[in-house]
# Entry
Amino acid sequence: MPLSPRARWKIEQFRKKVSGVFGGQKAPPRPKICPACGSLVGITATHCHQCGANLTFSLAAASKSLGRLLPERSPLTYGILTVCCAIYFATLLATIHMTGFAMPSGGLLGIFNLGAINNRVLIGAGASLPLGYNLAQPWRFVTAVFLHASILHIVFNMWVLMDIGPVVEELYGSARYLFIFVVTGIGGYLLSSFIGNFSLGASGALLGLIGVLLAMTMGRKTAGMQALRSQMIRWLIYILIFGLVMRGIDNWAHAGGFVAGFILGKLMVSRPPASPEERKRAYVLGWAAGLAVAVSFAIVIYKLMGPTAV
# Structure
């Protein structure tokens, strides 16, 4: 008895599934899309005919693969927020293990010391020290950017990050944004350590973001640019007052980060990379900054777990 068309279709679908499981017929290969410029390229191509990007491995492809793990909007801002919070909770657990809830060296009690991190933990985790120590251990210029001393400290800094970071990330692209954040943070701790301070926190890098936006909006008469410039000036005033009133604020790190950001704002084009060449340069900058962060914390972990642990 002949089978109905529906029965034949079901049998064919079942045959294809079984064939796939046992290595049977595979779907025909499809043309590729270049991760760098988005051009359609041939099935067997190894390099993009439009921009020359390597289709087997490239910084653009790796960046897009990593980007799938993060939110579509402001992925690097959320990534920085996550890293800072994770490091803070790790240092808080280390403080509780070392001192319990004792005051004022650490614990969960008090107002301004709520969730304070022990200084020995902060030094071991990579806080910025006077210049001689930092030059001998240069990873501290990077790791200090992601450390925070208390709940109030990290909450304020992450608040500023979530207000300003998405603006810079949208204007410059995620890769160059990461480069700006790390370089301005380093600039802040170069000046702070030169003065001889013990310091940590993302505020130097945040002032760097403010410096970039202020430099970028200077001389621009559009309503949007004027509003953005006014917002950055208000943030500068708030942080300056906060730094003068509150004890323990490292205004030198703020100044160093702001100056570094202002210089970058004058040097860098305030738009996402447009051409394949610009995207390639941006990916190089972003991956270099990310590698600097990864290597710096890898050294910290090695030293904490090795025979020379603090």
In short: The chain has a mean pLDDT of 81. The CA atoms of residues 233 and 286 lie 27 Å apart. The domain at 96-305 is CATH 1.20.1540.10 (Rhomboid-like fold). The longest helix spans residues 276-305.
